[in-house]
Amino acid sequence: MNRRVIHIDESPIRFERWRQYLPNWLKRFLPSGGGNAEDHHGKGMFGFTVFLLSESIVFLSLIFTYVTLRLTHSNSWLPSGVSGPELSTFAIANTVVLLSSSFVIQPAENALKRRKLNKFRWLWLITIAMGTYFLIAQGIEWSNLDFGLSTGLVGSTFYLLTGFHSLHVLTGVLLQITMLVRSFRRGNYNKGHFGVSATTLFWHFVDIIWVFLFSLLYLWQA
């Protein structure tokens, strides 16, 4: 006989006391009562959230380094003849596409929860296309810039930040393709959809990071 096993929460902080006041969308990322043994989705989402927090620290360290170098080398930030990344219509359009994709991928996950598989696939496919567009546009922008990776601090920091972020976008697109392919396996999501939920959360994370990078790299230049 299968018995439901409960892991006792032995944390010195009584999370359950304040967890009840959190919005429902945030509760799904936190374990309840130590977590049920069968609750693979809940425990998995909590672990994945912790992973994204560690990724945030990496990005924050890079952003802090950029701001520090920018402030301490303001007079020599742009070498002679270099204009730096410009706030062009192309860059703005690319940003709009990426940020808008968050408003596509979330309804896709919601459609899967309601077992509307075809709607999930179409919305998921649109998100993949939007992410791919961003990567291609980012590559086009890199090829048209008047500075390279070795062009002083402006070059090394710009390509490091945008390159590291693009690597995350590429990872997100590959994860989305994997989830889309798996959706064609009969009964694949009958026991849960942790992969889709984790990929959706990862994509929101990528979009939020780009808001900070776009503000630093483009708006600060304007």
Describe the structure.
Residues 46-222 form the Heme-copper oxidase subunit III family profile domain. It comes from Tolypothrix bouteillei VB521301. The structure is a single chain. With 222 residues, this protein is mainly α. The chain has a domain at 86-221: Cytochrome c oxidase, subunit III, four-helix bundle (Four Helix Bundle (Hemerythrin (Met), subunit A)), CATH 1.20.120. Helices cover 68% and strands 0% of the residues. It has eight helices and no strands. The chain has helices spanning 15-19, 24-27, 40-72, 89-100, 102-113, 117-144, 152-182, 194-219. α3 packs antiparallel against α7, α4 packs antiparallel against α6 and α6 packs antiparallel against α7 (152-182). The termini are far apart. The model has no long low-confidence stretch (mean pLDDT 83).
Cα gyration radius (Å): 21 Å
Q: Output the structural class.
A: mainly alpha
- N- to C-terminal distance: 67 Å
What's the assembly state of these chains?
A: single chain
Shape: globular
The CATH class name of the domain at 86-221 reads Mainly Alpha
What would the CATH topology of the domain at 86-221 be?
Answer: Four Helix Bundle (Hemerythrin (Met), subunit A)
Could you give me the name of the CATH homologous superfamily of the domain at 86-221?
A: Cytochrome c oxidase, subunit III, four-helix bundle
Instruction: Report the uncertain regions.
Output: none
Mean pLDDT: 83
Fraction of residues in H or I helices: 55-70%
Domain Heme-copper oxidase subunit III family profile: 46-222
Transmembrane segments: 46-67, 87-108, 120-138, 158-181, 201-220
InterPro entries: Cyt_c/ubiquinol_Oxase_su3, Cyt_c_oxidase-like_su3, Cyt_c_oxidase_su3-like_sf, Cyt_c_oxidase_su3_a-hlx
Pfam family, one: COX3
